[in-house]
Structure to design on (407 residues):
């Protein structure tokens, strides 16, 4: 009679193989258990313990709850993904609690979604199935196999207990900032309005506020005894059109003095920069993605009305790529205008060295974390989609007040 560890090992090996039927058969054996009294509970408990240990090993490899949420590992559904996020959060709480008490650290033992116990059970006391109909051990085996196969990534934030091993970096900008709240309100109105001129004015004002806030923060931190170093965030670039989303991240990042690296196999882009700039990138990327998608849908409808042509992936992707590049140009123009205005107010001899030093610090951080980055050439497969996307970006001008700049 196989024990719990043997059943788990067989199921994980089958899950990694190409035989789908064998994988399903081994998962069914996990549900049944070892055949002994409480055999299913033993399997479930052993699998939960393995998953907890595996999640605990993710921290030094750069994985955090926000990182997992931004990525889209192949084959992982919403519920198992939430399980990993919850376990990471529980492990961080356990590590932080041990650090505050001065004791030794220990891995989290809480298993989410199961009433705080190691096993999910039905009202009759038998091993149960979750709301999605999949057995808990099946979800855990899927999670464990994926967790063990995750590659190490750049460490952006301190792992629990790892203060001595990671360089201190900038903390995220406070979410309760009045300026950021005002920017969010402006962008929300820009996304919801049906009037292009109003969207132009609202988005332009948001960019103007963030650019000036970034300059003010740069000047303030330049006088600090221990100025912050560049930090980082990860933004999701999930399908469809992941490449176009990564391009939009890159363009928004470049306009806000940040650097972006796309991990296409993991489904996210890593953005490096200082807190105020990272906050601007997150807010603008989220809003512009909504606006670009809405513009693409309108363009698709106009295309159908003119030529009764059906939607194609090449058209949509070309549209979004063109939109991203054109918006990037306009964002950089707005940033340069804010720089010129600040130089007039503060004096170029004070401002320009500070901005140059911050840009150098971000690039140095990029070279340290990503020494082997490569560049991809952009391929356009649909000329109509490209021109439509460029026109849509022109209509979404970022000039405050809705004015169109001369070419």
């Amino acid at each position: 009679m196989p024990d719990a560890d043997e059943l788990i090992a067989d199921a994980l090996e089958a899950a990694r193989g190409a035989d789908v039927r064998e994988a399903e058969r081994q998962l069914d054996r996990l549900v049944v258990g070892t055949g002994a009294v409480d055999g299913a509970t033993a399997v479930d408990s052993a699998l939960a313990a393995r998953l907890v240990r595996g999640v605990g090993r993710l921290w030094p490899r750069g994985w955090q709850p926000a990182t997992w949420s931004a990525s889209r590992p192949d084959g992982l559904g919403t519920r198992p993904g939430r399980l990993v996020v919850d376990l990471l959060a529980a492990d961080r709480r356990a590590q932080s609690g041990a650090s505050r008490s001065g004791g030794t650290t220990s891995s989290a033992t809480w298993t989410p979604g199961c009433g705080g116990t190691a096993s999910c059970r039905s009202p009759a006391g038998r091993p149960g199935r979750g709301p999605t109909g999949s057995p808990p051990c099946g979800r855990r085996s899927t999670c464990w196999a994926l967790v063990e196969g995750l590659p190490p990534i750049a460490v952006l934030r301190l792992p629990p207990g790892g203060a001595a091993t990671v360089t201190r970096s900038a903390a995220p900008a406070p979410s309760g900032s009045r300026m950021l709240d005002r920017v969010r309100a402006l962008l929300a109105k820009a996304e919801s309005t049906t009037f292009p001129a109003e969207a132009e004015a609202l988005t332009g004002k948001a960019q103007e506020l963030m650019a000036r806030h970034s300059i003010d923060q740069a000047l303030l931190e330049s006088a600090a005894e221990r100025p912050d170093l560049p930090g980082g965030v990860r933004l999701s670039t999930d399908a469809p059109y992941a490449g176009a989303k990564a391009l939009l991240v890159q363009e928004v990042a470049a306009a806000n003095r940040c650097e972006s690296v796309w991990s296409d196999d993991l489904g996210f882009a890593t953005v490096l920069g200082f807190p105020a700039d990272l906050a601007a990138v997150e807010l603008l990327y989220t809003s512009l993605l909504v606006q670009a998608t809405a513009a693409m849908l309108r363009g698709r409808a106009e295309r159908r009305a003119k030529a009764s042509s059906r939607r194609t992936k090449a058209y949509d992707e070309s549209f979004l790529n063109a939109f991203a590049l054109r918006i990037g140009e306009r964002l950089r123009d707005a940033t340069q205008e804010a720089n010129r205005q600040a130089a007039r107010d503060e004096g170029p001899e004070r401002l320009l060295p500070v901005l140059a030093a911050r840009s150098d610090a971000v690039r140095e951080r990029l070279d340290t974390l990503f020494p082997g980055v490569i560049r991809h050439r952009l391929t356009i497969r649909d000329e109509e989609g490209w021109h439509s996307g460029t026109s849509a970006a022109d209509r979404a001008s970022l000039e405050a007040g809705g004015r169109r700049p001369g070419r």
